[in-house]
# Entry
Amino acid sequence: MSHSRKPFKISATRRKLIFGGTTALGTMAVIGNQALNSHQVKANENQTLTQRSPIRSANGRFNGKVVLITGATSGMGRTAAELFAREGAKVMFCGRRENLGKQVEATIRNNGGEATYMRADVRDPKQVEAFVKATIQKYGRLDIAYNNAGIGRVPGFGRIHEMTTEHWQELNSTNYDGVFYSMKYELQQMLKQKSGVIINKASTLGLVALPNVGAYVSSKHGVVGLTKAAALEYATQGIRVNAIAPGPIETTFLNQFVNPVDTQLYQQVSNSIANKVPLKRWGQPEEIANVALFLADEEASFLNGHIMVVDGGMAAHEGSAAEDRL
# Structure
């Protein structure tokens, strides 16, 4: 069935273009004028996540395991670091924001976990190599790597012929090249061990596309392809490689697009995104972290080359174009 559509437009003043990066959405929502009149969505009590103790478990399922996480100074990466540590893992994580990294390290250690922060920029292969080597020097091995680092918003949204080379390079050097550099050095260690699990952070926009964000779409499609290729290359050498493709995840990412002081507009945009999710709510960082823990566990020992979509049912919508689903 064909659908008539109004031309796609970007309005910086109304923040109509919103899409996810490593610290939050992991997807895109196109907000039209009608979105600003959407009714408020209230989460039901049964939609609220059970609060769990941050204290390290004496019988954690990752006791003795070494976990490396990129981009874990905030958002979904930080939550994953805390959960892996709570389950007994020794966590080595990086990020560019040193103050936040030290805070996360202190929080984990204060709760009885083991974690070490190292400043590293995944856009620089030498820094990535040094980060992986430091992990081995500190903890002796590498069992699980969660390549979470990525970005979703830089100046220069627009059609491909209008895109600046700086915009293209900024997104792809972080979201795609950074994953390649990380895997390159992680795999070298895992091949020596003849074992390991790699989890890459993709996006629902690694599976579908939207206009005016070609660089982001391209970078996440690249992560999906690289994940599948690696899964095939190393399957017989004790190494599994999978990826997570998140939908809208509630962190501070929305603050970059809508000033939280403008509470009415902020709530309207937030509700509009929630309304596009069949579960009628945003996902929580812990819900993505829990999937990472599952993929890393022996419970998922037959999962390889899989892209785990975690989007509240958005991708299950029938037919129609991506902008209707997202």
